[in-house]
């Protein structure tokens, strides 16, 4: 498995796909992180009316065309969710939800925006009984009770995994079509979580609209992780990464493109920015 | 040199003037990246701090005592008292600065 590349591109929407294609065309090796099915935001679009050359293209068709283009450019998608990025000075280390580490000399962030605000207490307790990565931290809660909050059915495997290790799993799916599990120690609830409090060194209290749950850890599994959580020194404004017109962020070697840089949230704007970000990253690498 | 903690025995770490404990595990990717950095710092700061390594699977009680909820998790003890903590991977220079804040 290739764990090192010139450029790491995070996100498989139009911005990330476009950035990866341009970077590879310019002779750079690329690690593209996201879903092999690409961002759900593409395929969910009923039709896109302003993408040049593809009038009224249904999202599913655009996604299929993107996949075909990636295949012909021999770009593979690494299906791992990046949960943390570390600026090592001259290179970036990326941590995946699989607990795998990756390395790249330049970074393009194209993670999109998912409207979600952190819960009160979430940021303060991150790493101290709040976790974004079940694979990484499950074993530290062996035999104890945990809570899982997730915004997509993709996380249900993580819930099953946690149930194998932990005594009890309180599951709070934030999506429609609540699942059911065979494991008896998983309890699916329709409460709406509101807050996380520190109870003691070993316990957190998850507060919901219906009650309170004392657990060892609250796992929060979201499709997108806030940019300033991914890489804390990134300059952001209202959830968007601040970039200049070359898609440069305030962190050397780190570029951003697509919805994460701000409105308008348009497919063609994202694809265009992906192109600029890739060219800027290539220029940055060649100047090194 | 890194002193390996076994059977959750923290006696030596608590007795040290300044102890740095790295809680980690075999299955943890970021821990593996941190290990060589921790090694180097234990050489560079020899005599200024004592370095300990604790595998959380072998030392669950020690991990619990210090509320280790995510790894890697580096705990700084000054005369047995917890004075600072770093959760997650950290570049070498930042970790070094963190430790030097408490050296005599």
Structure description:
The complex is a heterodimer of chains A (288) and B (104). With 288 residues, chain A is an alpha/beta fold. Chain A is 25% helix and 27% strand. In chain A, strands 1, 2, 3, 4, 5, 6 and 17 form a seven-stranded mixed β-sheet that branches. A five-stranded parallel β-sheet of chain A has the order 7-14-8-9-10. In chain A, strand 5 and strand 6 (101-109) form a beta hairpin. In chain A, helix 1 (14-25) runs parallel beside helix 8 (267-287). The longest helix of chain A has 21 residues, at 267-287. Chain A is globular, with a radius of gyration of 20 Å. The model of chain A has no long low-confidence stretch (mean pLDDT 94). By secondary structure, chain B is of the alpha/beta class. Chain B has one domain (2-100): Glutaredoxin. Helices cover 35% and strands 28% of the residues of chain B. Chain B has four helices and five strands, in the order βαβαβαββα. Chain B is globular and about 30 Å long. The mean pLDDT of chain B is 94. Classes of the chains: A alpha/beta (288), B alpha/beta (104). The A-B interface holds A 84, 86-89, 93, 95-96, 98-101, 126-129, 131, 136-137, 139-142, 201-202, 216-217 and B 25, 27-30, 32-33, 56-57, 60, 63-64, 67-71, 73, 87-91, 93.
